[in-house]
Amino acid sequence: MAPMTAKASPRIVVLTGAGISRESGLATFREPGGVWDRVNLEDVATPEAFRRDPDFVHSFYNARRAQLTDGSVRPNAAHTALARLARERHGEVLVITQNIDDLHDRAGQDPLIHMHGELLRAICTACRERRAWHGELTTETPCPACGTAGTLRPDVVWFGEMPLDVERILAALHACETFVAVGTSAAVQPAASFVHEARSAGARCVEVNLEPSEATPAFHDARHGPATELVPTFVAELLGERG
Ligand code: BJW
Asked: Does 210 sit in the ligand 1 pocket, CB within 6 Å?
């Protein structure tokens, strides 16, 4: 089959969630002991929470940013396998992640859409400048672009906000041949409906998750177990290396 050009639609679209980073040491959200067991999402993951108590929201994200940059967290075999898939099927694979960590980036994933933003970036609510940000943010931090203090926030998508690149994502879902969801509970929209978008457009849909999710019945094939075991196996299958 002829290789696709850079502008053509990807044949394989992979959606990832917090489960893919679990074996790298990052907590998921909705499992026992997950992020939402430790803090109420209404207190940290909405624009209203940030307006009400920006110090608290900053401390929540500062701690998670520090975990990401202290050297303790690394991409695992699932991140590495997806990066290899995109390299070896150049131009045919798009990974969309709901995760704000940078583990796909560090594994070399390209192309990659961070639909819920990135923990290692900040955006200024005054001048809208986005930039890489690896240190702490406080209500006193001045924006390097416009100089205003206290207007920087994590460049992440909170509840009630529009995820990033939605039009590009929907176009890819409607044109792909294979849709794969890895490590996501399908509890949050619009990502939870991607399987329906892809399936109704004719894609073969495969779930790879530790356990059945709310969306399992919508997939043609569901594989349940740890991502570090199942994703490399599935990638090898897609590359024609095993059964
Ligand atoms: C493993 C594993 C291993 C474990 N191997 N697997 C009513 C009121 C208000 C709003 C709404 C409403 N009804 C619907 C909405 C919309 C709302 C929403 O969905 N709310 C629901 C809670 C009901 N959504 C939004 O507001 C979104 N925006 C929006 O809809 O805009 C309008 C729109 C309209 C039309 C088109 C497009 C847009 C924005 C959602 C933003 C979500 N933000 C967060 C926080 C980001 C920043 C941060 O990280 O702090 O994103 S919430 C959190 O959940 C985070 C995640 O990306 C997201 C998804 O979680 P994920 O990844 O699925 O994690 P878990 O923990 O749920 O699941 C992990 C899975 O892994 C489990 O199944 C495990 O089994 C598995 N697992 N270990 C494989 N080793």
From this structure: yes
